[in-house]
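Reply to thread "Modeling small-molecule complexes from scratch"

Following up on the discussion above, here's a worked example others can learn from. I took a protein sequence and the SMILES for adenosine-5'-triphosphate and predicted the complex. Inputs first:
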Amino acid sequence: MVAPGIRFRGSAALDGRALFSGLELDLKSTGWTCLLGVSGVGKTTILRMIAGLETGAVLHGEITASDGAPLGDRIAYMAQSDLLLPWATVRENVSLGARLRGEAVNRDLVDRLIADVGLSEHAGKKPHALSGGQRQRVALARTLMENRAVILLDEPFSALDARTRAEMQELAHRLLKGRTVLLVTHDPAEAARLGDTIVVMTEAGVTEVPPPEGPAPRAVDDPAYLEAQARLMMLLRAV
Amino acid sequence: MRVLGGVFAAVVALALWQAIVSLTDVPRFILPPPALVFETWIANRALIWEHTLATATEIALGLLIGAGLGIVTALTLASSEFARLTMRPVLVFTQALPVFALAPILTLWLGFGLGSKIAMAVLIIYFPITSAFFDGLMRTPQGFLDLARTMGASNWTTLWRIRVPAALPSLGSGLRLAAVYAPIGAVIGEWVGSSQGLGYLMLLANGRAKTDLMFAALFTLGLLSILLYVLVNWATLTYLKRHTPGV
Ligand SMILES: Nc1ncnc2c1ncn2[C@@H]1O[C@H](COP(=O)(O)OP(=O)(O)OP(=O)(O)O)[C@@H](O)[C@H]1O
Ligand SMILES: [Mg+2]
């Protein structure tokens, strides 16, 4: 089954004040859409609306999948905070989805993903014993473990150092082939590196910006990527 | 350090007690000197031990049953809107009633034996446990619930795997409170009517003007209560530290 595209049309009000209006956002089937914007502009709100979760805002409009089927059970959601269960080990946290659904846990896959995010030595630890960046990588592994068609990532690499971030971006890109991904970020470099579609969100509304040439993830020294990063930065500061 | 502090406070209290007895002419049947109480305690150790066992049994069974009922009630309330609507007003109403006032009725219904004392202890600790655990179950961090929902968890697994573990610290507080209340319940039950237990022994000694024995029983009751609290405190905190470290 092909991962569906998603169409978001609508306006949202927060305490009677418009948060965004006439938003037109399209997530292309099987591609990465990067939603770039400054803090507080409404990125998380959009992502949570797609996930069907409560937000402080009221949505007037609709969110539909290109194949017309409901999205509810086809989404994996990685929130801005890691949401690791403090009483569960890294392994238990990564396998949470299967355990919650009463499915058999694929232990080999769990251990492989934990190794992929570089945490094999920590697999038996509980979250309090991990650093912020390590915790974020556990949350990433947990999201990758969910075999879902649509993946919503809310600043998934924000707590990582530059080198680990580049590695995790490549890992996520490799493991999420064929999925429809929405990546929310405030980092122009990340959007320029990973986006098949790049959407900049400011108080004035959303603008689609052409991505740099070449397939993602782009090399960190790719001139087109560096140039796009600068262009996005200018756009963000223009308002 | 804390143990040392406790010992120091006890020594000061004993000295004060002895000073009052020596400096005033307070008669022995009003306030016996500490040394006499200690002697009586040693001399009557078999008798006191027997009554201590009775009271300890009442407290332990009361705690066990009360905690079990409280946990089941909290789980029921937390998992069903209907239960919340119907049961909560009843619970609050029963709390408005002074539970001590029920002691004579319990004795009438359940007799002078163990049953009425256990029931009294259960009644006293049931509400603190229920309300502490229930509050914990209703205060699950929203993010965890969102996560469970996007992962396709049923209400039941969400309760079992997310809400209950997240509420264990609250249940622990409830249990620690219950450990303080349970002895009160048992002793009140004994005062209203019984033939054994430290509360009964106190009344008996009082009736025969054996104030020293009464103090010895009271002292034993205090020790028993402190021991129980320390034990429950240690058990819950040790478990929580292992289960949810860093919280
Ligand atoms: N639950 C809520 N109730 C009321 N207002 C909210 C709620 N959540 C967010 N907001 C407000 O909505 C606006 C958008 O918030 P949102 O979390 O979507 O921003 P964001 O773009 O994700 O920011 P950041 O990059 O800092 O995460 C903000 O002004 C915020 O204060
Ligand atoms: Mg956000």
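What I'd highlight from this example: The pocket of adenosine-5'-triphosphate (ligand 1) is lined by residues A 14, 19, 37, 39-45, 55-56, 80, 186 (CB under 6 Å). The two ends of chain A are 41 Å apart (CA to CA). Questions welcome below.
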